[in-house]
Amino acid sequence: MKKIFSRPRSLKKAVFHYCPGCGHSIIHRITCEVIDELGIQDRAIGVPPPGCSVFAYYYFDVDMVESAHGRGAAVATGIKRAHPESVVFTYQGDGDLAAIGTAETLHAANRGENITAIFINNAVYGMTGGQMAPTTLLGMKTTTSPFGREDKYEGHPIKMSEILAQVNGACYIERTAVNSPANIRKTQKAITRAFRNQIEGLGYSLVEILSPCPTNWKMSPVEAWQWIDDVMSKEFPLGLIKDTTGRGDAH
Amino acid sequence: MKKIFSRPRSLKKAVFHYCPGCGHSIIHRITCEVIDELGIQDRAIGVPPPGCSVFAYYYFDVDMVESAHGRGAAVATGIKRAHPESVVFTYQGDGDLAAIGTAETLHAANRGENITAIFINNAVYGMTGGQMAPTTLLGMKTTTSPFGREDKYEGHPIKMSEILAQVNGACYIERTAVNSPANIRKTQKAITRAFRNQIEGLGYSLVEILSPCPTNWKMSPVEAWQWIDDVMSKEFPLGLIKDTTGRGDAH
Amino acid sequence: MLIKTVFAGFGGQGVMSMGLNLAQAAMMEGRYVTYLPAYGAEVRGGTANCTVSVSDEEIASPVASSPAFVVALNQPSMIKFQNKIQSGGIFFLNSSLIKEPLLRGDIEIVQVPANAAAEDMGSVKSANMIMLGAFIKKSNLVNLQTLIDALAVALKGNKKLIAINKNALTAGYELV
Amino acid sequence: MLIKTVFAGFGGQGVMSMGLNLAQAAMMEGRYVTYLPAYGAEVRGGTANCTVSVSDEEIASPVASSPAFVVALNQPSMIKFQNKIQSGGIFFLNSSLIKEPLLRGDIEIVQVPANAAAEDMGSVKSANMIMLGAFIKKSNLVNLQTLIDALAVALKGNKKLIAINKNALTAGYELV
Amino acid sequence: MKGKIEIDQDLCKGCELCIFFCPKKLITLSDKLNAAGYPPSAFSGNGECTGCATCALVCPEVAIEVYRG
Amino acid sequence: MKGKIEIDQDLCKGCELCIFFCPKKLITLSDKLNAAGYPPSAFSGNGECTGCATCALVCPEVAIEVYRG
Amino acid sequence: MTGNAAIAEAAIRAGCRCYFGYPITPQNELTEYMAAHLSRREGCAFIQAESEISAVNMVYGASVAGARAMTSSSSPGISLKQEGISYLAACQLPSVIVNMSRGGPGLGSISASQSDYFQSTRGGGHGDYRTIVLAPASVQELADLTRRAFELADKYLIPVIILGDGMLGQMMEPVEFKHEAPSALPVRAGALRGAKGRHSRFVRTFTSNPAELEEVNWSLFRRYQLIQKQEASCENYLTEDAALVVTAFGIAARIAKGAIKQARALGLRVGMFRPVTLWPFPSEQLKELSKRAKYFLDFEMNMGQMIDDVRLALEGGGDVSFYGRPGGVIPNPTEVLRVITRVYHQKGLNQ
Amino acid sequence: MTGNAAIAEAAIRAGCRCYFGYPITPQNELTEYMAAHLSRREGCAFIQAESEISAVNMVYGASVAGARAMTSSSSPGISLKQEGISYLAACQLPSVIVNMSRGGPGLGSISASQSDYFQSTRGGGHGDYRTIVLAPASVQELADLTRRAFELADKYLIPVIILGDGMLGQMMEPVEFKHEAPSALPVRAGALRGAKGRHSRFVRTFTSNPAELEEVNWSLFRRYQLIQKQEASCENYLTEDAALVVTAFGIAARIAKGAIKQARALGLRVGMFRPVTLWPFPSEQLKELSKRAKYFLDFEMNMGQMIDDVRLALEGGGDVSFYGRPGGVIPNPTEVLRVITRVYHQKGLNQ
Ligand SMILES: Cc1ncc(C[n+]2csc(CCOP(=O)(O)OP(=O)(O)O)c2C)c(N)n1
Ligand SMILES: Cc1ncc(C[n+]2csc(CCOP(=O)(O)OP(=O)(O)O)c2C)c(N)n1
Ligand code: SF4
Ligand code: SF4
Ligand code: SF4
Ligand code: SF4
Questions:
Q1: CATH number of the domain that G295 lies in?
Q2: Which domain holds residue C61?
Q3: pLDDT beyond 80 at B56
Q4: pLDDT < 50 stretches in chain A
Q5: Which ligand is nearest to the CA of G74?
Q6: Could you tell me if G186 and G332 lie in one domain?
Q7: Residues G189 and G255 placed together within one structural domain of the fold
Q8: Residues 73-112, chain D, touching E (beta carbon < 8 A)
Q9: What chain G residue is nearest to D42 in terms of C-alpha separation?
Q10: What's the 3-state SS for chain B?
């Protein structure tokens, strides 16, 4: 029998430190699959800011640099401008990209920085222990929204992809999820496109990925995966949000 | 004969330090007219961050506090939360609100902070001597875009109002200009609404005002005023951008 | 006397609440107490531990570099702390999950089949309280009754939970 | 000898380029030179000034608290600097715009109808160069020819502009 | 005479906006400079002024007061 | 037997996602804990496995290798 | 109660009604306590801001409006607040900033550390300003000094930093609160709340006239001198007969105390000088002590920062050794005892 | 050429191809020069970032990728960069940060000031780190030290701060550049440029193991000691026979020099000690000098910051007076002369 599925080459042989059922692990793997597919392991430079995935460099077998919280887009900009042959991607949580990093992200996108952003929306701050994120759903109780998020007090969950779609420099934005075999495949395709855009010099691409955090959602992995379908994707609808690349391969 | 036009009460008797033909002066005056009209001179607290209008407290006869560059929305939030009876407005330039203050502005709007933002878009950094602003038009030469702003290098002019319109907490956003008698009147109406919304507790309101900067545009005042019609408002179309207040008085 | 105890296990096994209950009880007995949780980025899917120091005078450091007692609920914790426990100390092992032999001869070992006992009692989540009961019996750090009282405080009077936990504590106490 | 000169006027009257040209010329003559523009938030619609220090040795401070020469192109500048100019210094006044009398008797005053002369020459924007020409004649800080050469550098060889400015400089030089 | 305006000579910065926008073209620039160094504008009050206040509306310096009556 | 899978007992965290998503329900949770303290899942290789790789696709730990043949 | 919760509770009891923060380990329990107690409560404000920068500027706003306001963070987040702190100091706005510091530089470690001493005591922000810096060494003191911080802030119109560390924040110890939360606080004079019944006024720092700014700096400076005279405080522990004095603050002092007890048991005459206020540094008190003791061992959980102040206070009149562990490593009393013993012998104090 | 332009030109000639900045007075000419020379040029990057924070983090990225990179700002903007500078230091990324400082605190004034001495020399950011700090006193030195800054940054893998001020930045003086811009620079070893032909690697600071972070701190510390030994530099001006030594840096030193010339003309034996590197502070050199001279007058355009280092270097072995003007006020030589004369007499040096 032939081995038809195994660990991608650019994913190091290390045990993930993530919780059981966490979406980060899946996204790591499929990103590495894309890197392998595109043959860019020796050009890729990853930028993981703090967040549960701050240790991403233990897993990705590509050059990587930690950035300060929220500054991934700026750091990636610096790298790409200094060394345009590289393929630079940020790997940012929702606290990172949509709260403290709002300005860096929006302006990098607006300048059309030729980089790829992988944006993990798990509706909470994972690393710091489950605080409210800009993406936390209404009604969700977190350690800093103990009464459940309310529009009136904590504001509505922010839709960063839709916001970023407003600026010209962003050429491709899609929202996917990693909560089912089909969605995982779609996510992989989206990540592929986001990297291809960069390789072709088309500008800023972002894939927002709804990603389960069973720990802070206080659910079992299976429940968490289903909750994305049942609840989260109602607030954050999946699908292509923007594509100005003119390439025919949108699905 | 009856005096039918004179200095509004809440505008101090001081000579503006602004350049001849500058829009700041006009906006100061009409904001004061609105403050008089609404009878809120003793409740209003203004927040002017650095910018040509950093000295706004020399003109507005209401309580005022300078904020750090870009942080107007955060400071206004702090004031309003600590003292909800006040009527708090920020008076921010485009460098302030749309560059360094991007995150503060977007999130204050998203939380629906019950404040009023007066946003002066003059397409340049005035105070610091004419650098490129996020709103600088394509092709415009500034001291930091000496070859003329290009989409590819410096990104497209940012439309902050359209971006802010994406978030739920923003209840009212309108773009006006102060380059003709009619537009000045419309601006005054918009500012009135933006304050009224706050008084009625409806959330975050913003009026973006296209404002001439003859000095840095290197035009005469009259040319600058016309340029807003001829060029600037093509990129930044005037009109109501968002209104969820349900009040009938939109024009 | 300053006595430091480390409670260690997987996240989810309830080691933090073991420590908290002990700290609360010691406080109720009028002793100086510090409680120090240890967790970090690596906690996700890893081990968790906390340190409780109990003393009759001010406590200098809440950290235990060589604790007198270690309560290990799983194997990685046993491995992690076997070289730290002080000579002559007592190592409490959850023998339901820890199968490997310990390599030190200068410490006392108390084997507690906590998970098995908890299953017998029909409440698998009580393994930690069974361990704690056993710990108290041997360590004599606080009275069992104080611990039960402390529990009542922590559980804010939830009768059902108090009963379950009290049973587990007592069962553990009697197990060794 | 360290000599400090302040050029002052409205923004737009060209005081900065007067200072720059003088500094450039002095540099070409091998002297130590500093040029310090002064502007601030209040410049908008206000006055502008710059200080040129020329010396045969290293210059300590580029600031002039009591300049030897002041060139004032408008009345507010005259008012602002009339108390600062050092005793025995020379005050160059643009008499086309400055009508009020000066209140000090211990300094020399040179009246230059610069705007009027510029209008006569048909280039209203040259009033500053007329002033500068007059200044050079009286102050003897640098040679007229060096100044003209410096001008050529600043104008990057633009023949037409050079000619206009040279004429203005010379006219000013001959005016006093 | 339906209206008239008064221009504060010390406030005016000579931006010429009132001149440009006055529907009756009743305002001109004076040839003297004021204390601040600007040539202030002047009202040529020849009776055609309607007191429409357009000039005051556009004047950045709040230098114009308008009378009607 | 069209396919089979191998589950790395040390990598598995017992999240049960493979169990949930396996279309043939060929995976179960074992009752022992692995070294990391998780009950790993086990493949009940009863010949029905098609090697569809769904389990591997959803496995967050990359603990599953799939063979088809 | 954890140290973090103790601060939060003490702040609320000190009349703090406005809290603005942003998550960061190891101080999240503080923010979370505030979320639970100030959210949805009439007259209170809790905001998880979008960043530390925003949080400190919300404090600025709330303080301008007359409220007792507070923010908290840990090292990297405190760095981001530096501009804001400089503004708070410049505008003389009372406010409390808590730094439960962690290992640095960079993202560092989340373990307890003391390497932000310089940043806190010398103004990590720009300009000639100081903040009062309080360094508690127990959970009880965290609570007590939090209250004190608000009082000092109001008394001197100054931002006050509580410099704790991750261990103090996360450990639990018994704590007693001596005060109930006030039902209402008087509004601070000078607060901006709308110009009702008075002339409008403004709060600012910018000026185009340096001489004016110099005046501000001088008046700040005079206030700082007053604070230095009145508020420097320290703990002397067994220093009367000490041949060797350990200087240490915060959690390190606590650890040192344990070591000193052991040293005393061994017959070594060792004592401790612990600044409670890091700024103003109790220089007079230390100078005074140096009349009796000549040998000092400065012990810090960093590479040597407070030692500058120790040496400045001693003015050459003492022999100062140093022992430090940076990065979030927490030394234990026995280790410090070893150092004490070594220094004691090296300096010939056992003769 | 203005000082600001001189820095920019010197940087370009030092091989700096990546500049990221944000407008702020009084350093805009620097940014603008870079805009004119690095925009639209192959292999170069100029970005006006959306904030100072973004700019310093772009520098971080460019430096990680092996480029000589630079940012510049003035006081409030430098405060915002503190977190980033701490990261640069932690990750040992060579980089140059220019601070043309202005009056503070807060928004302050745009006039020249020296009140960011503490912030620059003690790490305004969190953690045990240092940056090399160079303090030029003329436009020529701005240019020379800019080149030196890039060299030192690469040599020691450290961020280097050029601490100038608004006056130095805006004044013009003749300046000579001794070097042509290199056509290409070798890529720094350790740079991240994709794992071609080697194993992948990473740059980070975060660790869950404080002991690891302690090691980082120790290795930084050892490097800092090396730098202190090798790079401390100063200017001695007429100090051989000086009874009174003025200590001053940057623009203040320049003003002091003028005053000293006048003092000498009056027959007063006055000299000047000017640190060129503020960190490492030339303590040895000053200590050495204090064998000859006992009286010092520290003169700064702030309320007294470098004086700490002067006193630390003297270790009680000197009598230090102070004269300072904060807020952006620029004293003139005559004023400093008056102070010199007063101190000279007070200390009885004219006998
Ligand atoms: C300046 C700064 N502030 C705060 C933190 C603490 N912190 C670390 S990760 C993080 C956010 C985590 O949330 P998210 O970005 O959503 O990623 P996740 O952990 O959920 O994957 C925060 C606030 C920090 N490291 N630096
Ligand atoms: C932290 C910080 N960075 C930069 C500055 C310098 N600065 C003052 S105002 C300003 C922006 C001015 O532009 P804008 O907001 O568009 O207002 P305008 O002057 O055009 O009215 C800047 C960058 C500052 N004061 N603080
Ligand atoms: S806390 Fe959530 S996001 Fe973080 S590792 Fe665990 S499941 Fe994943
Ligand atoms: S620079 Fe522009 S915005 Fe500023 S006062 Fe002048 S005209 Fe107005
Ligand atoms: S609009 Fe006002 S400022 Fe302008 S010219 Fe007329 S009166 Fe003067
Ligand atoms: S999906 Fe992977 S980790 Fe989860 S139970 Fe299956 S094999 Fe284990």
A1: 3.40.50.920
A2: 2-175
A3: yes
A4: 250-251
A5: 1
A6: no
A7: no
A8: 74-76, 97
A9: G208
A10: CEEEECCCCCECCCCCCCCCCCHHHHHHHHHHHHHHHHCCCCCEEEECCCCHHHHHHHCECCEEECCCCCCHHHHHHHHHHHCCCCEEEEEEEHHHHHHHCHHHHHHHHHCCCCCEEEEEECCEECCCCCEECCCCCCCCCECCECCCCCHHHHCCCCCHHHHHCCCCCEEEEEEEECCCHHHHHHHHHHHHHHHHHHHCCCCEEEEEEECCCHHHHCCCHHHHHHHHHHHHHHHCCCEEEEECCCCCCCC
Q: Specify whether H177 is located in the same domain as H315.
A: no
Report percent pLDDT > 90 for chain G. 96
* Residue D44 to residue B55, Cβ atoms within 8 A: no
User: Which atom number of ligand 2 is nearest to the Cα of residue B125?
Assistant: 13
Whether B and E touch, i.e. at least 3 CB pairs below 8 A, reads as: yes
Cα C19 to ligand 3 centre (Å) = 25
Q: Which domains, ranges and CATH numbers included, belong to chain B?
A: 24-243 (3.40.50.970)
Radius of gyration in angstroms for the set of CA atoms belonging to chain D, rounded to a whole number? 15
By C-alpha distance, the chain C residue nearest A213 is C44
Do G224 and G283 fall into the same domain?
no
Mean pLDDT computed over every residue of chain H: 96
A22 CB near ligand 3 (under 6 Å): yes
Angle at CA of residue D87, ends D83 and D93, nearest 5°: 60
- Please state the atom number of ligand 2 nearest to the C-alpha of residue B127: 19
Looking at the 3D structure of chain E, how many domains does it have?
Answer: 1
Model confidence at D42: pLDDT above 60: no
Enumerate neighbours of D (3 or more CB pairs within 8 A).
Answer: B, E, G, H
Residues of G with CB below 8 A from C58's CB? 257
- B122 C-beta closer than 6 A to ligand 4: yes
Residues H74 and H172 both lie in one domain: yes
User: Number of structural domains, chain H?
Assistant: 2
Integer angstrom CA distances of residue G302 from D147, G298, H119: 60, 11, 18
**Cβ–Cβ below 8 Å for B1 and E61:** no
pTM: 0.96
CB contact under 8 Å between G327 and H210, yes or no, is yes
Q: Is residue A187 within 6 Å of ligand 1 at its C-beta?
A: no
Peptide bond into H105 cis (omega under 30): yes
Chain segment B199-222, per-residue pLDDT in tens: 999 999 999 999 999 999 999 999
Residue G71 sits in the same domain as residue G37: yes
CB pair distance less than 8 Å for H107 and B144: no
In the chain, the amino acid numbered H97 is: I
pLDDT tens digits for B130-171?
999 999 999 999 999 999 999 999 999 999 999 999 999 999
Ligand 2 atom at minimal distance to the Cα of residue G83: 1
Range of the domain at F13: 3-68
Domain span holding position G165: 3-194+218-230
The confidence band for F47, taking pLDDT boundaries of 50, 70 and 90, is: confident
* Single-letter residue type at D81: F
A212 close to ligand 1 (CB < 6 Angstrom) = no
Interface confidence (ipTM) of the complex: 0.96
Q: Name chain D contacts of G206, Cβ cutoff 8 Å.
A: 41
The CATH number for H75's domain is 3.40.50.970
Percentage of residues in chain H with pLDDT exceeding 70? 100
Q: How many domains does chain D have?
A: 1
Cβ atoms of E11 and E62 within 8 Å: the answer is: yes
pLDDT of residue C38: 83
Residue H288 and residue H140 share a domain: no
Give residue-wise pLDDT tens across range C131-165. 999 999 999 999 999 999 999 988 888 899 999 99
For the CA of B93, the closest atom of ligand 4 is: 3
CATH code for the domain in which residue D51 is found: 3.40.920.10
Kindly report the nearest CA distance between residue H206 and chain C, in angstroms.
10
Please state the rounded mean pLDDT for residues H141-168.
97
> How close is the Cα of B50 to the center of ligand 4, in Å?
13
**Percent of chain H clearing pLDDT 90 (strictly above):** 96
CATH number at residue E53: 3.30.70.20
Q: Distance between CA C138 and CA A176 in Å, rounded?
A: 55
**Are G244 and G327 found together in one domain?**
yes
